[in-house]
Amino acid sequence: MPDQPSGPADKPRGPELFTWEFATDPYPAYAWLRENSPVHRTTLPSGVDAWLVTRYADARQALADQRLSKNPAHHDEPAHAKGKTGIPGERKAELMTHLLNIDPPDHTRLRRLVSKAFTPRRVAEFAPRVQELTDALIDAILDKQGAEGGGAGKGEADLIHEFAFPLPIYAICDLLGVPREDQDDFRDWAGMMIRHQGGPRGGVARSVKKMRGYLVQLIHRKRLEPGDDLISGLIRASDHGEHLTANEAAAMAFILLFAGFETTVNLIGNGMYALLTHSEQRQRLQQALAEGDTGLLETGVEELLRFDGPVELATWRFATQELTIGGQEIGVGDPVLVVLAAADRDPERFERPDTLDLSRTDNTHLGYGHGIHYCLGAPLARLEGQTALATLLRRLPDLQLAADPADLRWRGGLIMRGLRTLPVEFTTA
Ligand code: HEM
After folding, report:
1. Among residues 86, 152, 111, which one has the least CA distance to residue 255?
2. Taking CA 338 as the corner, what is the angle to CA 335 and CA 340, rounded to the nearest 5 degrees?
3. How far is residue 41's CA from residue 26's CA, in Å, rounded to a whole number?
4. Is the CB of 373 inside a 6 Å radius of any atom of ligand 1?
5. What InterPro entries has UniProt attached to this entry (predicted)?
6. How much distance in Å is there from the Cα of 404 to the middle of ligand 1?
7. 209 CA to middle of ligand 1, Å?
């Protein structure tokens, strides 16, 4: 819990961040920061000093402030520490020159090109496939009960590993045009990346390398034999005669996988966990869906993003000049982390911010970011989130948490917030 200020003249020390308790429930600490130290200097577990921006108004302004660069070259970290901070992009790999690490005008050009291929229409046309994938994963969960338990009765599953984790990886692979027979390789590489986050880098680096090698070859094949998939669309996309280079296309495919994978796992995991622990809200949603009303599903998924969103901190930003955020001076080169999870619980912006209200409509949450880096995949994330939650509630209507919430473990990555496992039980027909 937050320390108390030791005296009126002392600057309050603030809560302990990045501990196990904090990973389980960071919201009391964020409430303290918003109130007492809204732009807070802290040392991250990697040893890097950074500013945390926790109030909604400051967060929104910072996300749109072009004096804050996404390019890690603007980081003031001493040369000897470079490459050791884990800040993406310090590793010089080609895959790292992507939308989340660059500024205008390069960002504007790449974002325009990818937007021509990754259109809301392409996502809408993908809806039946997302439904099919969702049903297949639930079929597998149900079949497993039959095989293991011998028919009707109680079933059990871990919704993270058996559902939330595979759904987005298969969905993005399909959308990109990765052939079905190769998608399990992606599942393994992505599994390695998610499991060993913050841990030893060897396995992760190997997985990234394999993924890159595969994507470069796939792009080469799609150049020769284009299809109607997203990679062929990326290759075809042109703007004033300009195309993506081979490296840019590989980096773009990689960031789509990377940005669209763990985020969606967490939307399904955190979202389902919130529903399972708020039974009155969950019943309202189940009732609405049974009556064919999808309005509450739509506002509900937005509320789940606000209430306990997948991205706890927006990705890195670095001050390119001196500036002030919320009255606090920020020095040139200082890293700034916008805490989306804190901003989205700010009582100055949201009524009853700590209450889950699936029917909330005044909800301009920052779960997808804001400004020029606003999430490119938001329409796909909404489609997957809505399909996943609605189908789980329809097909496993008496789904229940099979663990004490206090015993659940949250993954300790810096940027993301998500459960390691979500054990559930249900009745099989
Ligand atoms: C950017 C959240 C799903 C692709 C972002 C940002 C956030 C975000 C907060 C901005 C980061 C920043 O400004 O530092 C989410 C959430 C998702 C989700 C909560 C799921 C619920 C997806 C999916 C895709 C995707 C499914 C693609 C398949 C991207 C890309 C960017 C981005 C490419 C970078 C955009 C740019 O820099 O111009 N996302 N995302 N995201 N997201 Fe998502």
Report:
1. 111
2. 155
3. 17
4. yes
5. Cyt_P450 (IPR001128), Cyt_P450_B (IPR002397), Cyt_P450_sf (IPR036396)
6. 31
7. 22
Closest to 336 measured CA to CA, from 140, 64, 84, 105 = 64
Residue at token pair 């998939």: 229
pLDDT at 347: 98
Q: Whose CA is nearest to atom 26 of ligand 1?
A: 260
Helix segments in 333-420, DSSP class H? 340-343, 378-395
CA angle 197, 201, 202 (to 5 degrees): 135
Nearest CA to ligand 1 atom 3: 260
Ordered mean pLDDT values, 10 residues apiece, the chain (429 residues)? 43 81 95 97 92 98 97 72 48 68 93 92 96 98 77 87 96 95 90 66 77 89 93 86 83 89 96 98 98 97 98 96 97 97 98 98 98 97 98 97 95 89 93
In 3D space, the residue among 338, 328, 365 whose CA is nearest the CA of residue 36 turns out to be: 328
Task: Please state the atom number of ligand 1 nearest to the C-alpha of residue 340.
Answer: 9
In sequence order, the 6+-apart residues with CB closer than 8 A to the CB of 95 are: 208, 212, 250, 251, 254, 255
Contact 193, 265 (CB under 8 A): no
Contacts of 5 (CB under 8 A, 6+ apart): 11, 12, 13, 36
Model pLDDT, residue 320: 97
Is the Cβ atom of 255 under 6 angstroms away from ligand 1?
A: yes
d(CA 263, CA 319): 26
Cα gap 165→172, rounded to integer Å: 12
Q: Find out whether the beta carbon of 17 lies less than 6 Å from any atom of ligand 1.
A: no
Query: In this predicted structure, what is the pLDDT of residue 132?
Result: 98
Type of residue at 370: H
Report CA-CA distances (Å) from 405 to 82, 135, 155, 300: 39, 27, 19, 21
pLDDT of residue 94: 62
pTM of the model: 0.92
